[in-house]
Amino acid sequence: MAGDSKSLTTKVESGSPYQLDPSQTLRAASALLKKISGDSVARKDNGGKANLLEDADEEEDSDETATTVWLNVTTKKHIADQRKMKPGKIIVPFPLQSATSPSLRICLITADPQRKYKDIIASERFPAQLSSRINRVLGTEKLKAKYKTYESRRQLFAEYDIFLADDRIITRLPNLLGKVFYGTGAKRPIPVAMQGKPENARDEAGNKRVKLSEGGDKLKRSEITPEALAHEIERAVGAALVHLAPSTNVSIRVGKSSMTADQVAANVDAVVTGLTEKYIPKGWRNIRSLHVKGPNTAALPIWLADELWEDEADVLEKLPEAVVKDKKKRKRALLETGAANTAEAEDETKSTKKSKSDGAEKAARKAALKKQKEESKTAIAAA
Question: Disordered: where is this region (predicted)?
């Protein structure tokens, strides 16, 4: 299936030159879920012996601890110039996690004052089922004062399942939480819009607001309502997160084994659309391959590019004249260097031969001199 790249590349007449083949995505999702299910049954039938090397969260196929399905994206050029501390969010049709799950523990990090958001969550208009899942609300000042040490941050990390943060202060959190949170992407805080809608986005005539840097007024926002905040939290918890880094590979959680193949395929389509429109430079042109996989399965291809280059301009029919001349110069220099090395080797060989012949002559002279001495001694003794 992976060998025939053309069968996995779908082009259209209008819009983007490429798109996913829904039937291929569905086939790959079905095969992957079948494999994960088969492995789960095999583990249960294996005399009840658990694999100690596996993550405890991957052992069962219940909705809360189901095996994760990943989308692996390989690009032709780096996705980002530097590591992004703020993860991107892509809303999927079938949420990856429910914010009202009974066992879920959420920590909400807010801009100061934190009391303002505690009151909103405690409001009667805020859904009670969701407020019971938000176990803690932390302002940045309290976070900075209380969690300075590595050990205290580890305890905070282990205490909650998900960390949400006001998108206004999320870029400050790497300094406040350190490598305990940002060493991996497991529990990196998810940005949440915790402000109301802009009040002066347009003037009375309906024109767009002039930016403050261009002499306009400062953007004013209304206070966020309990209903709006609850909606933003639910969207953030169920979204697919994109952690960007200077690399040609990125893995995104798009589903779980408790979903159907159609649901996984729909999420894959939404994530790929979000990636190509917002996160991957040059969109489809920069994508080399798309695969789906589980934690312990092979990667199944759903799309492979026909070309390994991003743009036709990257492919040269002829080398530039300057490059050709440079190659000729280097070749000539190598030949000259080789000739010089050959001459040096010949000289060294000659000198070696000469030194050997000189040594033989010296040995012959020594032997003759020794013989003369012995003859002289014999003559003296006879006299």
Answer: 1-24, 334-383
Which range scores top for mean pLDDT: 74-88, 217-231, 275-289? 275-289
- Is residue 343 predicted with pLDDT exceeding 60? no
The alpha carbons of the chain give a radius of gyration, in whole angstroms, of 36
> What is the spatial distance between Cα 127 and Cα 162, in angstroms, rounded to a whole number?
18
Sign of CA dihedral 46, 49, 55, 61: positive
Question: In b/e form, how buried is each residue of 119-135, taking b as 16+ CB within 10 angstroms?
Answer: ebbeeeebbeebbebbe
- For the entire predicted model, the pTM comes to 0.69
Secondary structure of the chain in HEC code, one letter for each residue: CCCCCHHHCECCCCCCCCECCHHHHHHHHHHHHHHHHHHHHHHHCCCCCCCCCCCHHHCCCCCCCCCEEEEEEEECCCCCCCCCCCCEEECCCCCCCCCCCCCCCEEEEECCCHHHHHHHHHCCCCCHHHHCCEEEEEEHHHHHHHCCCHHHHHHHHHHCCEEEEECCCHHHHHHHHCHHHHCCCCCCCEEECCCCCECCCECCCCCECCCHHHCCCCCCECCCCHHHHHHHHHHHHHCEEECCCCCCEEEEEEEECCCCHHHHHHHHHHHHHHHHHHHCCCHHHHEEEEEEECCCCCCEEEEECCCCCCCHHHCCCCCCHHHHHHHHHHHHHHHHHHHHHHHHHHHHHHHHHHHHHHHHHHHHHHHHHHHHHHHHHHHHHHC
In one-letter notation, the amino acid at residue 264 is: V
